[in-house]
Design a protein that fits this description.
Blueprint (H helix, E strand, L loop, with lengths): L1 H13 L3 H21 L3 H13 L2 E5 L2 E8 L8 H5 L9 E5 L13 H14 L6 E6 L6 H17 L4 E6 L7 E4 L3 E5 L28 E7 L7
Parallel strand pairs: 3-4, 4-5
Antiparallel strand pairs: 1-2, 2-8, 3-6, 6-7, 7-8
Helix pairs in contact: 1-2, 2-3, 5-6
Pfam family, one: MIT_C
Protein name: MITD1 protein
InterPro entries: MIT_dom, MIT_dom_sf, MIT_domain_contain_protein1, MITD1_C, MITD1_C_sf
Length: 231
C-alpha cells in the first residue's frame, strides 16, 4: 500500500497537482516507515529504508515547488533520461542550457562536449518536439578554444539535420548551471551535465550507456517557474 501511494504521488507530481502529490508522498512514506518498524528481518529493514531514501524530497513553502534528488558518490542509474525525461512533455519545443564548462577537454580529461551531445540526442529522441536549443557557456582556455568551437558547430549542423536549431552564446562571467524547458520546468544540477565519472576505458561498461556510468556526488534541484521568481 505504501509503495502504491508513493507511485500515485509521483503521477500527481508529474501532472503538476502538487498539493495532492505532497499528501500522497507523506502518506506513502508513513506507511513504509510503519512496515520498517514492524519488520524484524534486518536485511528487509535495510532494503525498505533504502527504498524510502530513494524517493525524491518534495518541499512546499509559501506556495513554491521544489523537488530535490541527491545522487550519491559512485551511484549508477542516473543517465540523462532518468533525470530529465519526466519533464520533457510533448509541448516542450525550446530548451535553455547554461553551463560554463561545455568544452572539449576539462579536468581529468572528461569530454564535456560529448555530454552535451548526449543530452541533445535525448532531446531529439522525444517525446518532446524540440525545435531550438540555447546554450550559454564559456570559452575553453588556450588551444582548446578552436576545438570547442569546431565541436559545437558540428553538433549544430547535426541538429539541423533533425530540424533543431542550436544557438550558442559565450560569457566570461557565467558560473551558474541550470537547464530550463519552455513548459516551465527548471533543473539545477550542482555539477551541471558533468556529473559522471571518467570511464575506465573506451571498452568498459558504462562508456556508452550513462545509466551504467558511476556518478560523482551531486544534488539535482527541480523547480517550476510558476512557483519561482520571473528570471
Amino acid at each position: 500500500a505504501g509503495a502504491d501511494t508513493v507511485k500515485r504521488a509521483v503521477e500527481l507530481d508529474v501532472a503538476s497537482r502538487f498539493q495532492e502529490s505532497l499528501v500522497c508522498y507523506q502518506e506513502g512514506i508513513d506507511l513504509l516507515l510503519r512496515v520498517v518498524k514492524a519488520t524484524k528481518d534486518e536485511t528487509k529493514k535495510h532494503r525498505y529504508r533504502q527504498k524510502i531514501s530513494e524517493n525524491p524530497v518534495t518541499i512546499f513553502s509559501d506556495g513554491k515547488y521544489h523537488k530535490q534528488i541527491r545522487i550519491e558518490e559512485n551511484a549508477t542509474g542516473f543517465g540523462y533520461e532518468k533525470v530529465f525525461q519526466e519533464y520533457l512533455t510533448e509541448i516542450v519545443s525550446e530548451v535553455w542550457v547554461e553551463d560554463p564548462y561545455i568544452r572539449h577537454i576539462h579536468q581529468a580529461s572528461r569530454y564535456l562536449l560529448y555530454n552535451f551531445l548526449r543530452f541533445c540526442e535525448m532531446l531529439v529522441k522525444g517525446p518532446c518536439k524540440v525545435k531550438t536549443i540555447h546554450l550559454l557557456t564559456s570559452y575553453d582556455e588556450g588551444s582548446g578554444k578552436n576545438q570547442q568551437i569546431s565541436g559545437l558547430e558540428e553538433i549544430g549542423q547535426s541538429l539541423r539535420n533533425h530540424g533543431v536549431t542550436l544557438n550558442v552564446e559565450f560569457s566570461s562571467s557565467i558560473h551558474d548551471r541550470e537547464i530550463r524547458f519552455n513548459n516551465g520546468w527548471m533543473i539545477k544540477i550542482g555539477r551541471g551535465l558533468d556529473y559522471f565519472k571518467k570511464p575506465q576505458g573506451r571498452f568498459s561498461i558504462g562508456y556508452c550507456d550513462f545509466d551504467l556510468r558511476p556518478c560523482h556526488e551531486t544534488t539535482v534541484d527541480v523547480f517550476h517557474t510558476k512557483h519561482t521568481k520571473k528570471m
